[in-house]
Amino acid sequence: MPEITLSFHSDDIDIANTLSKQLKSLGNQVNMDDAPFTDKKTAQKWTELYPDTDALVVLYSANLQANVNKVLNENNAYQAKEKISQAEKTLPVITVVIDNIEPDPIFSDCFCLYGSRQKIEVLARNINTHVSYLHNELLSPYKRKMIWMSCIFLFMSALIYTMLYAEEMVKIQFIITPFYMMSLGALGAISYMLFNIVGLLDEKTFSVSNTDTNNLRIILGAITGWISYIILRNSNYYDDNNFVMIAIVAAFITGFSSKLVVGIINQAIDAIERATGITKSATKEAK
């Protein structure tokens, strides 16, 4: 579900609300910003102001034009144009002109739709079409990166798995196994991202363009794979014939599902608090 930020002048709230309803009916999530041009916001990058949005739609009216002319002087008008140009590289910016006027030159790099003569329903469909196209174009490099990373970790997992059953590696199996589980945890994290990219999952917390967060997710998957190995290594399952299968499932699932890991950790903390009496003490203090 694409997330759109609809920026408009506060006096244009009625048309903004109507357009927002139409965009939501097309499957978009819409955030409203009725003060896009202020001194504070002009100084910030749009990618910082709207970190989770997939596209920025600016309703350009006579009211907004007057606001732009008032806020932007000759110096920060250049900064604003630079900001919009930079945003276009990572965030689609669509200017929708709803009055019979021409947009300010600072929007010259943006895709422009003239909607003064279009019905709201038609305008919403046009916006939705362009948001989908521009968003997919911007995400292509990130998707290609995810494909390469998936292939690398898949190859690593297959290679280490083969080494586990090689007769020459039996003596150092205890060294190979933790690396295998770490690679599976990372592969689980990447699989989670791929499920979101292809649309089988739709997690609000996931954004394919958020490279730093996605890299940390992969590292976290490797960490949970390592922790799974430590737990299983010191359990009764270690001497079981099915240890490798159990390890594969545990490492992959903990890397794939952060909710599962957080839930297990919270349950363990609750159990420790009850065992040590911390929960009882807190309850008494509350009373």
Strand proportion:
5-15%
Indicate the mean pLDDT.
Answer: 79
In angstroms, what is the radius of gyration? 26 Å
Number of helices: 11
Q: What is the element string, with H for helices and E for strands?
A: EHEHHEHHEEHHHHHH
Helix content: 55-70%
The total tally of domains equals 2
Oligomer: single chain
Through-space gap between termini: 45 Å
Structural class by SSE content: alpha/beta
Strand count, sense and barrel status of the largest sheet are:
5 strands, parallel
Globally, the shape reads elongated
Strand arrangement, major sheet: 2-1-3-4-5
Question: Uncertain segments of ≥5 residues (pLDDT<50)?
Answer: none
The tally of beta strands, per DSSP, is: 5
Provide an overview of this structure.
The chain is of the alpha/beta class. The protein contains eleven helices and five strands. The chain folds into two domains: 3-117, Rossmann fold, CATH 3.40.50; 139-256, no CATH class. Helix 1 links the parallel strand 1 and strand 2. The longest helix is centred in the middle third of the chain and has 45 residues, at 120-164. It is elongated. The mean pLDDT is 79.
